[in-house]
Q: What sequence folds into this?
């Protein structure tokens, strides 16, 4: 019936409610929407609510106002855990710099076997997190892998610290595992961004007599600014909620490596103080959102700027060519 | 005249030497980076072939006496119940990937091809969800899973894994935007139902997006350990991650055995990577664009 109607009078068909369309929309959108609400918006609403209560998963001891929040900012333990993310931010900066360095070498220079280098550097990203935990516990054990290598290049064992126990270095040891895992992934993203730059720009620049460093500054950097900023945002917000290295390598944040997220996890699942944990999670979320918004504003401004300079430079290079 | 040629030649020579030096340094940097990337993996690999006695007496970096000593592998396979863990993980990966692909493509089809009240709202709901860091909500998500009776339930874990996924929806949305709408319009005029259009015409066309989502999601779910540890603590439903996690109990500091288990879990990732390298790289790029 509807088939005939659509053939003869397509205009009339549109004015009636198309039940088939309604059915498709409802069937196809209902499940994802339901799951989104169930696993994102309901937990979000509950998190706000619980953060004002003194409660566990089974008992609710009543409304406490802003007490939970005050504790987050006044207890030294939590502030200290928050400050640990500075280690991870420093690591993220080093990681991005290294990733950019290797990405530009692999894309600009004619490196023999570039695909193999790329694959080897990327592979750590695919290693299971728990496996990374064992691999690096073994790696850092006194007298084992790292110490053997360092001894081989002439550093005596007595001069080396206990990498995971010594509190002056253990957070750096954990940050290194994160750099080890994610550096190659960032590099692959940068290589992708560099590949999308118009190759005639390099030709023009080479004819102009620009060296690699000048090419990097004038062509690559502006060309990948968008991807670079995006990765910077992700790395910094990731540093705020860092937990993987401390969870898997640092034995759940032993020896002063418990990041803020580890504290939240322990507060909720070990101490069962759900209200307090929710307040901490709210603070974490607020910080992440604050950073994201700030960076996006900056990003919007810089991106405009980068597009202009990029186009100007591109035109200039082409005109010269 | 001859002076000029000479000086040009010497600067050329100098530039050439400089280039060679730079090139050498670049190769050295790359080799060093690869050494650092491989060293932790290599040491686990060599250790996995050592006998208990060898492990105790030789240096961590010493090569194993017998490269064909698979004793540790068979021990970890049987004692660690790894076959079961692999099957459980395979099951989870297949179900979650299928559900994610279906949900992502269906929702993207509806959002991209139909104008209806609420279209913009749904898009915004998903977009805002990417701004809320999922990790911050673990505490209350746990309570919801508990209320639903999903603790220690493999089905609950699968639903959670498929339900908290926005990236695949974005990848499909992007893909549908580049698919010509004339194709399905003419099919509808020919009398094809919307279901027919979606399943018979559009879904086969999105094959590249499906592969990207499947690889990305598959590797992600296979390696997922936080929720697995939290929600699958009973022995009967151990994924690869939780099975690995439990090794620290029975095998304590027998790293030669643990390393064998670690190596075994790497094999599927390695195979997927070798076969789908391009898709893995491409998936990363499209996954990161959502921000």
A:
């Amino acid at each position: 019936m509807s088939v005939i109607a659509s053939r003869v009078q397509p205009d009339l068909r549109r004015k009636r409610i198309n039940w088939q369309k309604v059915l498709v929309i409802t069937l196809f959108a209902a499940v994802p929407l339901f799951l989104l609400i169930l696993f994102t918006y309901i937990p979000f609403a509950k998190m706000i609510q619980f953060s004002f209560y003194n409660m566990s998963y089974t008992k609710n001891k009543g409304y406490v106002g802003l007490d939970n929040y005050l504790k987050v900012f006044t207890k030294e333990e939590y502030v200290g855990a928050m400050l640990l993310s500075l280690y991870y931010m420093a690591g993220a900066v080093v990681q991005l710099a290294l990733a950019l360095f290797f990405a530009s070498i692999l894309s600009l220079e004619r490196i023999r076997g570039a695909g193999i280098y790329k694959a080897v550097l990327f592979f750590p990203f695919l290693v299971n997190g728990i496996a990374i935990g064992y691999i690096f516990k073994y790696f850092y054990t006194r007298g084992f892998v790292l110490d053997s290598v360092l001894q081989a290049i002439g550093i005596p064992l007595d001069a080396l610290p206990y990498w995971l126990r010594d509190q002056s270095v253990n957070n750096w040891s954990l940050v290194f595992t994160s750099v080890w895992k994610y550096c190659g992934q960032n590099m692959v993203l940068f290589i992708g961004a560099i590949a999308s730059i118009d190759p005639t720009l390099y030709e023009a620049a080479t004819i102009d007599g620009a060296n690699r460093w000048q090419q990097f500054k004038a062509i690559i950097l502006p060309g990948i600014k968008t991807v670079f900023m995006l990765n910077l945002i992700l790395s910094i917000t990731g540093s705020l909620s860092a937990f993987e290295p401390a969870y898997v390598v640092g034995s759940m944040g032993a020896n002063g490596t418990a990041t803020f997220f580890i504290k939240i996890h322990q507060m909720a699942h070990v101490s069962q103080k759900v209200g307090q944990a929710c307040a901490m999670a709210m603070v974490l979320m607020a910080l992440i959102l604050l950073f994201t918004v700030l960076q996006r504003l900056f990003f919007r401004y810089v991106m405009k700027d980068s597009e202009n300079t990029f186009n100007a430079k591109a035109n200039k290079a082409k005109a010269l060519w | 005249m001859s002076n000029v040629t000479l000086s040009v030649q010497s600067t050329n020579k100098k530039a050439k030497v400089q280039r060679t030096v730079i090139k050498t340094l670049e190769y050295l940097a790359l080799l060093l980076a690869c050494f650092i990337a491989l060293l932790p993996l290599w040491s686990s690999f060599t250790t996995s072939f050592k006998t208990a006695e060898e492990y105790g007496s030789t240096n961590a970096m010493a090569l194993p006496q017998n490269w064909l000593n698979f004793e540790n592998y068979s021990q970890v396979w049987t004692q660690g119940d790894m076959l079961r863990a692999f099957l459980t993980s395979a099951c989870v990966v297949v179900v979650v990937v299928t559900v994610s692909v279906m949900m992502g493509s269906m929702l993207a089809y509806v959002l991209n091809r139909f104008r209806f009240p609420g279209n913009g709202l749904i898009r915004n709901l998903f977009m805002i969800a990417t701004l809320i860091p999922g990790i911050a909500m673990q505490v209350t998500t746990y309570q919801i899973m508990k209320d639903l009776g999903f603790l220690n339930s493999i089905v609950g874990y699968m639903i959670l894994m498929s339900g908290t996924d926005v990236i695949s929806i974005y990848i499909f949305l992007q893909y549908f935007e580049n698919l010509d709408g004339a194709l399905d319009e003419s099919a509808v005029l020919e009398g094809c139902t919307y279901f027919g259009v979606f399943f018979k015409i559009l879904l086969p066309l999105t094959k590249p997006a499906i592969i990207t989502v499947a690889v990305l999601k598959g590797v992600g779910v296979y390696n997922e350990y936080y929720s697995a540890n939290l929600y699958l603590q009973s022995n009967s439903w151990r994924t690869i991650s939780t099975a690995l996690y439990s090794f620290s109990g029975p095998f304590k500091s027998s790293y030669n055995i643990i390393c064998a288990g670690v190596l075994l879990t790497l094999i599927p990732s390695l195979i997927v990577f070798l076969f789908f390298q391009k898709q893995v790289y491409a998936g990363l790029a499209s996954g990161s664009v959502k921000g």
Remarks:
- Chain B has two domains: 2-47, 81-289.
